[in-house]
Specification:
Elements lengths: L2 E12 L2 E12 L3 E5 L6 H9 L6 E6 L5 E4 L13 H5 L7 H10 L15 H13 L5 E5 L7 H18 L2 E5 L3 H7 L2 E5 L3 E5 L1 H6 L1 H7 L2 H10 L4 E3 L5 E3 L30
Parallel strand pairs: 3-7, 3-8, 5-6, 6-7
Antiparallel strand pairs: 1-2, 1-4, 8-9, 10-11
Helix pairs in contact: 3-4
Bound molecules: adenosine-5'-triphosphate.
The site of adenosine-5'-triphosphate (ATP) has 12 residues, from strand 2 and helix 1.
GO molecular function, one term: ATP hydrolysis activity
Protein name: Zinc import ATP-binding protein ZnuC
Keywords: ATP-binding, Cell membrane, Hydrolase, Ion transport, Membrane, Nucleotide-binding, Translocase, Transport, Zinc, Zinc transport
Length: about 270
């Protein structure tokens, strides 16, 4: 398995805020990893660290030399009065051979949109065009930051089926932030739950049925939901240490790694605030 990105014991600041502390993370070629976590838990910070837009203040980030990354943003504002076709948009800032525009639109599942006006696309079509744009990089790693926000459930399910097709056709890895449980459970090889640190991680279907997981989060749909929904409430002190006061269904607050690696709680030793 080829390792594309490896992050070791990284702490990352956003201005004066310590957004991530002691984070270990990796992604290998061909896998789909989803990052979940509440608002402000550091998901975008982790994406930016993977891309290299943010540098950790402690720890290390290793990227495969020459790594190509395609990025699909949450949304992109385009002046609705600006007349620009999809093919021209894909060619910004430089002109793009039409055949190449058609090729990436095909990969994104919208082969017929090339001559449509950007301003007239539906939300789902617009996100497909952003996906096509990311594919121009011929990425080793495709990053999606809540790329289906605003789409209805069938629309976002279709979008993620397209992602799966791209992964199979191109063999790239996919790293995404998602708030949608059906995506997390159905479309990911691994789930990483963030709360300023890596709170827990594992393969979603194994995690959901593992006794260790049930002990932590409960069983049935409630348990699956809990993977995503368990409440966090913690802050960091000025040293970046995690002042932890969350209710994630733990019987106790043992955050040492479990023997079974399928469900792994990786919080660093930290001050509990109860
Ligand atoms: N540019 C910035 N300057 C200062 N603090 C920032 C900046 N960007 C993010 N932060 C802070 O860093 C922390 C992590 O933010 P981040 O955007 O990574 O969280 P997130 O999990 O992506 O949140 P959301 O789900 O709301 O998008 C938050 O406390 C946030 O307020």
């Amino acid at each position: 398995m080829e390792r594309l990105v490896e992050i070791a014991d990284a702490s990352v600041h956003q201005g004066a805020t310590v957004a991530l502390t002691g984070v270990d993370f990796h992604i290998d070629r061909g896998e789909i990893v989803t990052v979940v976590g509440p608002n402000g838990s550091g998901k975008s910070t982790l994406m930016k660290t993977v891309i290299g837009a943010l540098k950790p203040s402690a720890g290390a980030v290793k990227r495969k030399p020459g790594l190509r990354i395609g990025y699909v943003p949450q949304k992109l504002q385009i002046d609705p009065t600006l007349p620009i076709t999809v093919a021209r948009f894909l060619g910004l800032p430089r002109r793009l051979p039409r055949a190449q525009a058609l090729e990436v639109l095909e990969q994104a599942g919208v082969p017929d949109l090339a001559d449509r006006q950007m301003a007239r696309l539906s939300g789902g079509q617009f996100q497909r065009v952003l996906l096509a744009r990311a594919m121009l990089e011929d990425p080793d790693l495709l990053i999606l930051d809540e790329a289906t926000q605003g789409l209805d459930q069938p629309g976002s399910a279709a979008f993620y089926r397209q992602i799966e097709e791209i992964r199979q056709a191109k063999g790239c890895a996919v790293l995404m932030v998602s708030h949608e449980l059906h995506v997390v459970m159905a479309a990911s090889d691994r789930v990483v739950c963030l709360n300023g640190h890596v709170c827990c991680h594992g393969a979603p279907e194994i995690v959901a049925s593992a006794p260790e997981y049930r002990a932590l989060f409960g069983s049935g749909t409630g348990g699956a939901l809990a993977l995503y929904r368990h409440d966090h409430d913690h802050s960091h002190d000025s040293e970046g240490n995690c002042l932890h006061d969350h209710d994630c269904g733990h019987q106790d607050h043992d955050h040492t790694p479990k023997a079974d690696a399928n469900v792994t709680s990786l919080a660093k030793p930290h001050a509990e605030a109860h």
